[in-house]
Amino acid sequence: xxxxxxxxxxxxxxxxxxxxxxxxxxxxxQEPIPRNEIVWSSGYWERPGAxxxxxxxxxxxxxxxxxxxxxxxxxxxxxxxxxxxxxxWVDEHTIKIWLKExxxxxxxxxxxxxxxxxxxxxxxxFWRIGGFKKRVESMExxxxxxxxxxxxxxFPNSQVVWDALTSxxxxxxxxxxxxxxxxxxxxxxxxxxxWQDPEMPEKxxxxxxxxxxxxxxxxxxxxxxxxxxxxxxxxxxxxxxxxGQLYFETNYGTNTAFEEGKIxxxxxYFPRIWELEKKPIGKYINTWMGMEPPYFLxxxxxxxxxxxxxxxxxxxxxxxxxxxxxxxxxxxxxxSTSGYLEKGNATFLYPEIKAHAKFIDEEVLETYDFSYDLxxxxxxxxxxxxxxxxxxxxxxxxxxxxxxAIEDQLPDVEGxxxxxxxxxxxxxxxxxxxxxxxxxxxxxxxxxxxxxxALSPEYGLYQDKFTTMDFEIMNFCMGPSGVSSPYxxxxxxxTGDPPGEWQNYAAYENPELEALLDELDITPAGTxxxxxxxxxxxxxxxxxxxxxxxxxxxxxxxxxxKYWTNWANKENPxxxxxxCWETGNTGAMQRLIWSLKAAE
Length: 600
Known about the structure:
Elements: H1 2-24, E1 38-42, H2 62-65, E2 67-68, E3 70-73, E4 78-81, E5 84-91, E6 94-99, H3 113-125, H4 130-135, E7 136-143, E8 146-151, H5 159-166, E9 170-171, H6 174-183, H7 187-190, E10 211-217, E11 220-225, H8 232-235, E12 242-246, H9 251-259, E13 265-266, E14 285-287, E15 298-307, H10 317-326, H11 329-337, H12 354-357, H13 362-368, H14 374-384, E16 385-388, E17 391-394, E18 400-401, E19 404-405, E20 423-426, H15 432-446, E21 452-455, H16 459-467, E22 473-476, H17 486-494, H18 511-521, H19 528-544, E23 547-554, E24 558-560, E25 564-565, H20 586-594, E26 597-598
Parallel strand pairs: 1-12, 1-13, 20-21, 20-22
Antiparallel strand pairs: 2-9, 3-4, 5-6, 6-8, 7-8, 10-11, 11-12, 13-24, 14-24, 15-22, 15-23, 16-17, 18-19, 25-26
Helix pairs in contact: 10-14, 11-15, 18-19
């Protein structure tokens, strides 16, 4: 954790220094780009400044410079190859991968098996695929285009291994990045891969994707089409010559730009989007669902109220359930998100996603699901707490929790008494819908005599706080999306060490759940045992409710057809509704852009 925190500080310093260079040095000249040659997007929150693909928070362009081997398309339920041609289980311990023959880097060198092996070696060294590394016995290049992966004896049919090989990890040029490693021993935080930097060697400016760096400032990033992209013969030449990302301080700026026709690919919260139909831009605007409810597919991530389990009594399931029954989900949705969001369910599975819906256990929902019910919330609190001078105190707190002694705050009262609250509830400043949710959650908690303060740090500080578990409660919506498997949904949300590092956001601990996940990993898909395990996992999570899945968040995917057409939607589902922050699905983002056509 200390190492990660140090890197986080170094990365912040790097971005600040880069920003200073941009603003105090002569800015590179930028010729105006014809509006009909560029797709403008907005909604990705990390500002430009670091295109290092092995670091969290890389700049937007990284996701178009480098490519994955495969991408699972949840709109078609098919695994699609990009750099990869085919992947199969040869037997329960062996996976074989074939790369496409005629794929190459921008410097003309072929993309080979060695690049794949190098990428996965680096990912393993930087813990981004720790589960994969734990389960793999060997990963070898049989020739320039064939890779064979062997799992350890105890991990047959490993879902973790398969997912790591078929997900959106972008393959890197070994011949370039081994040089970078030699020059920058701490290259993950120190090397920005900024092609605009005049001191960066030309020989390091190597990628494979459909778009390459062109120009950036603090408030915009522009990529230019790779005219020699290997994928043209497979996927066609992308129609947009340029791809850009605009940055605003809040949703208000993004929304105004979208309404003015300055944004084509919109990935933010737009209140009452149906009202745009009455405005001049309205004839061009659409969403995945069309201009009718619910507009946005509710499966991009869970909007969770996350409790830091390192702090007592924020680890207590009864407290989570009491709070879950005190939140007025429908009212908050109407006020904060124009009614787009509908209350979540305690299983953490998405009803709108076929791969999830078939596993949802109705008995678990009947026993453990929650809804807005103040009387129920107070009843739960009354079972575990006493009301003293307008505040709740626990009846039977432990003497210590995770190595920290717990003070009895009412020594003259029977039992060990710890006050519920006051606690802070953080969310990112500028995420206006989430900020309003927190204000209204604080209001609702007041109805049950628990004080929770709505706090809104800047994104960088928010990220530092949740990755180091330096918070009490947080509103969090960046966990696994509906395109994740049930295994990934439970594993990422509720397991992983260190907690907070884009995994196990609440620092939840449950050996039984971890054992079930280990079994699920090696259980063949489609078997009765798979369904039984996923049912047991749902029961544990719904019972303990480590964090509250308040709403399944919408894929904030809207678009304008003023300049570009053939956007994916419910009637044209060649890809699922991918937002420009859907960075876990790089192949889907790229496919969306290369599928667009110029408006006539």
